[in-house]
Amino acid sequence: MSAPFVHLHAHSEYSLLDGSIKVKNLVRRAKDLDMPAVALTDHGNLFGMIHFYKAAKRAGIKPILGMEAYITRGSRHDRGRKKGEPSQTDHLILLARNLDGYHNLIKLSSIAYLEGFYYKPRIDFETLQSHADGLIGTTACLRGTVAQLALNDGYEAAKAFACRYRDVFGAGNYYIEMQDHGLEPQKQLNEIYRRLSADTGIPLIVSNDVHYLDREDAEAQEALLCLQTGSDMDDPKRFRFSTTELFFKTPAEMAALFPDDPQALENTVAIAERCDVELKEGELHLPRFPLPEGFASNGDYLRHLAFEGAAQRYGDVSEATRKRLDFELSVIAKMGFDGYFLIVRDIVHHARERDIPVGPGRGSAAGSLVTYALGITDVDPLAHGLLFERMLNPERVSMPDIDIDFCFERRDEVIRYVIDRYGQDNVCQIITFGTMAARAVVRDVGRVLKVPYDEVDRIAKLIPGVTGTSLRESLENISELKTLVDNSADYARLMKLSLTLEGISRHASTHAAGMIITPTPLVNHVPLYKSNRDEITTQYDMKSIDAIGLLKIDVLGLRTLTVIDKALRMVEENHGRRIRPEDIPLEDEKTYELLRSGRTVGVFQLESSGMRELLTNLRPTGFHDVVAVNALYRPGPLGSGMVTHFVDCKHARKEIAYEHELLEPILRDTYGVILYQEQVMRIASDLAGFSLGEADLLRKAMGKKQKDVMAEQRKQFIEGARARGIARSTAEKIFSQMEKFAEYGFNKSHSAAYAVLSIRTGFIKAHYPAEFMAATLSSEIDDTDRITVLMEECRECGVEVVPPNINTCHPEFRAREGRIYYGLGAVKNVGMAAVETIVAERSEAGAFRSLENLCGRINSRLVTRRVYESLIAAGALDALPGHRAQKLAALETVTERAARRFRDQALGQSSLFGESEEPDEAPLPEVAPWTAQEQLQKEKESLGFFLSGHPLDRYRDLITMIRTTTSRELRDMPGGERALIGGMVTAVKLTTDRNQRQMAFVTIEDPEGQAEVVMFADVLEKSRRHIGENSVVVVEGRVSRRNGGDGKVLVNSVLSVGEDQTPSWKEVHVTIDLDHMGEEKVDELKGVLTGRPGDSRVFFHIQENGRRSYVIRARSQGVLVDPALVSGLSASVGACNVRLVPAGIGA
Hints:
The chain is an alpha/beta fold and about 1150 residues long. It has 45 helices and 25 strands. The strands form 6 sheets. Strands 1, 2, 3, 4, 5, 6 and 7 form a 7-stranded mixed sheet that branches. Strands 17-18-19-21-20 form a 5-stranded mixed β-barrel.
């Protein structure tokens, strides 16, 4: 029989950067050692307490809830050292005996963060005295108060403080804690402690200060401490533990350390038996909703609002609708969630009343008719076949999860309303933890081990950047990584430590959207944390909040809603037409023409290059297709061949076959493909008699591949299907199909809700492109790369963007008369506050007449000279007299004169005539204007891109005809695909390969951004003359995508298309869309191609009825490809419909 012992002092990963044990591993080790219980005592916090509690309960051992508190001998309100007072913060172990103790732990930890934080979250003796009920205290480690006094101030001082603690906790609730980690001070202290126990009657216990699981993890723990302190392992002055004994020891190992203290060992078990905290999982703690007069309960009021809302939505409420509402309301009432739905409806209703844009819904909440009737969501679940049981399953009680999107710029107003409505003490945001993911942990550990950066970078880049990919998987699957680690002791050490630390929590932050609302003050339910930005959050994360039954709401800020709102306001201002988002039709032909064309940059969820390719292939004809697109464009369906099958079935290239006629109404909208989770549920219900609640459990089991559950469900499905006259073989085949597709199945409710936003943004772009693009540009005003992409899209859409102008433009982008006026706030180094000041002055006192007039009217403390420099470089002051070089040369003098006048006015000083003695307008200096190249370069520096022109303008059509992808599209292209990309060389970085041959990383810029291409030695030798800076080239090669990063091109060949270059061309391919090309355009094309004999063969790709039908090779002789042909083809059919195949660059 093992010695009696329970660990009462253990740290997990939630002692951030001071513990390396995952909670589940702590519990598993205690279980493996047959310990009846184990404590968790993280430093100053309860971050991991609920995860620990649940893991221990699942393992069948008792969880002892605790904390190693930081306690100051002065006041928790003190900051810094005061004369005559100790400066250190001591440690104290606190364990909850009962629920009162648990709640006092919550209060103590909250007070420590909210009132006592000074480097550490601290309590003081006063706080402890007020909240000691239900707690057991122990002296803790060498940093404990009694230990510090015993070693530094003498026995009597230690004895006095120990007795003081005993009196606070009460007789039998305070223990002296002995430890032995091989440290000499501990051996001295243990002798003092034995005497102290004998003199005071305070009982002894023993503990190990557990920070890691196994002895061999000690080095990983030291690496963790280095990360915490910003030092490296070789630093002789760094903080270190100086022992390898802080691991989870067995009872036998503890007994061997303390052979003369059997009672102290037994006392740990006695404490474990006394500690008995039972948290009521699943019990709800919802705030009370303030009911209006005339309603006796939440249920009554919810029913009233639901039926009232249904009447507004549908007019006459049909019997089927009434039955669905009754059913949903009964489930909500049975689960006790009436108040939850009322609170969410109240928040959304408040936002709508104040014209704060609200999203149509997200997640499974869109499947509820009640949420639709209440106005929480804006997707009709009846019309789109969405299921309530996907949100709330009557067969399994779980907290509902209603996430709400609000306008990004006004989300804070919603949060303020919630706080005002339910009380500052009852509302806060939720904590989240950043973890050490695979790549990040390698970089962190590499730094503390002082492995050269380039070596660590090489290793980290071999690890896939895909979320969820582990280091161990990478080592098993990536041979280059395994070889590096196997052949280097340094790399092996790096990987060993990284594997130990991978996935542990590194830091705390505030969840982007999660909020909780409690019925009584927060500290009665959950411990609180204050961030270094003074944000108050829960100490429990999202999953823990759910587990203890608190109301959680996700209040998200979505930029798309802001874009829609701003665009529609401009539409009303410019066209006199007031359109509400909810009035935008889901079936609008012009919108679908836009989607089919793939011109969806800026359209919600539909703008990636892969998504645009899917749209052009699928050619959506109705809302159901857009819902499907959102569900299809995910790694599972894309990698399984499902997408190709889906597209082929829509266009009748494959026959749609149903295993049974009952499947046809369920799968009709998805062309026979099981795409949604709701379809799996409906099949189980309609074909096998499952209730929709049972069907939801089946859906979950399939998604999680729970084989034991699946076997039972298969049997139930087949029996149910046979009872409905379906043959066993057919039922088995259908179930197998469900299993296969359920792995990729998507939540249709979420897809439908987001498809509504796709349609709304598509509608605005199709009908009001200037307003839409202006709003989209404003939403991305701080992102230069994004602005670059959107400006190119404006050009592609034929929307003129008026350059920045100090007298006509506003802080944000504005649309007027079909044009977009550039947003002054998008100019670099300007800032929104400065341009708002300038525009406000212009609005009040009229347009600016000159540089001197501008600077003289704006206080230099509000708008600095640097702002004017950027505005000049961007061309924003071109409307004022003088060219840009003159204004920049005059700026210093002008701003100084202006500043002097402002100072004089502030002092009440002026000339006899009430004006400055200096002349109002000094002449601009005579300096040479910038060259066109200088002007473009300065524009790029101030805007992030070329605006008034582009060095590639003269080659734009030619490059469009040669390339197969753009820099933006390249980022998302799959590895291995062939790509031609063209642009201007802006940077060449030469390096050597492993054979010491020179290679190059070349940056190519096109109108949509930049791309990196890689030229290995052989290609570089042949192409070096083509890649000088500012040269214009098209490169051909294969796409390389390493570990989730942006695509790069590994170059095979280079074609120079700049000045004095005359490439030879093998073929000319022209796409002709007969649906949109009239006879006049056909004649124009004939004219371009006729009478230009040459060697380049011509092919016509004929499109008809929305898809490519056939290819025709021109019978006449080839054509001569020259600038005139390029220009003519571009004018007649558009450059994007022409493909030139160079003779020397591959087909």
